[in-house]
Amino acid sequence: MLKRFIIPVTFALSALLCSSVAVAQEQLSPLQRDFNEPIRILAENDFIDLAANIYRATGNVRITQGTLKITADELEATGFEEREGETQMFILRGSPATYQQEIEPGVIVEAQANLIEYNATERTLTLSRLAELRQDGSMVRANRITYNIELQQVISESGDETEQVETILRPRPRQNQPEQPNELPNGLPSL
Questions:
Q1: pLDDT tens, position by position, 2-35
Q2: What predicted TM-score, i.e. pTM, was given to this entire model?
Q3: Backbone dihedral region of 62: left (phi > 0), alpha (psi from -120 to 50 degrees) or beta?
Q4: By CB neighbour count within 10 A (0-12 exposed, 13-18 middle, 19+ buried), where does 97 fall?
Q5: Domain chopping of the chain, boundaries
């Protein structure tokens, strides 16, 4: 009698757990889902040193992880083995190297620089030399840009005293704008 009760209850709890996991997965942002995906690297050549925990790739390097897309001429990755205290770091070089990722539904961050350092452990992106970061119509251009992906914080630095950081902020759309009267070609309002 007890077996007949335990099996359906166990099945029901398993189904509830599976549906809860599916709902929780749906509630994650694209960014959070990306970090749970495997990292896929395509390149013309690669080298792996398992003892030193180093991976190098050259020639048309393309990296994907969920919505994350990175392109570069060269890649060096460290920390891909699970060793305590080791940072998972991707160093990319290109002319330029590029980064793209959906951080919220419909919000895509795009970046490019000659050198990109992606710290996957701390979720930071450091762009150096001809660095540019774009999101939702806004843009930052500088010699060096550090972007905390999870906190969505940006620090921009000029190269020297002769350079400046350029930031372009897209204006927010106005809501509840008063209706403008229709104007005739001569500038007079129509009736």
A1: 444 444 443 443 443 444 344 445 677 777 888 7
A2: 0.73
A3: beta
A4: buried
A5: 34-168
